[in-house]
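Task 17 of the worksheet. Students: predict the tertiary structure of the chain below and write it out as C-alpha cells. Keep your answer in the requested format; marks are given for formatting as well as content.
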Amino acid sequence: MAELAPGPIVPIPPQSPPAWQTMAEAREHGDDRAPPIERPVAESQAPGATAWELSDPVRYREYELRGQRRLRQEYLMAAEQELPKWKALLDRARASGAPPAVIAEAQDKILRLEARQIALRNSEPSQTGKE
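Model answer:
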C-alpha cells in the first residue's frame, strides 16, 4: 500500500450555533432582519374625552367628530399608500396569466376601495351625528 503524503492542514470551519440558541438570542435581542413592530395604541391609552367634553353633549359631539375625522384621514392615507401596490400586483397577475375570475375579483375590490376613498374625501361627518 502506498503511503499518503501529508497535505496542508485545513482548519475546520466554525459550526453554526444550534437553532435553539439563535432563537433564544432573537427572542431576547430581536432579529435585525425583521421589520419593525408597530404596536397599536391601546384603547386605554388613546386620547379620550375629557371631563369637560363628557359634561356637555355639544362638546362631546365635537369630540366624536374629531375622532371620526382622524379615522377618516388615517384610512385615506393608508389607501393612498396601498392602492398603487395593489394595482401593481394586479398588473403582474394579468401578465402572469392568472385566472380571469381572480383578476375580476381583484379589480372589483380595487374599484370599491377607490369609490370608498372618493366618498370619504367628499364627505364630512355631519353635526347631527348621521353620515
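Marker's comment: DSSP finds four helices and no strands in the chain. Residues 127-131 have pLDDT under 50 and may be disordered.
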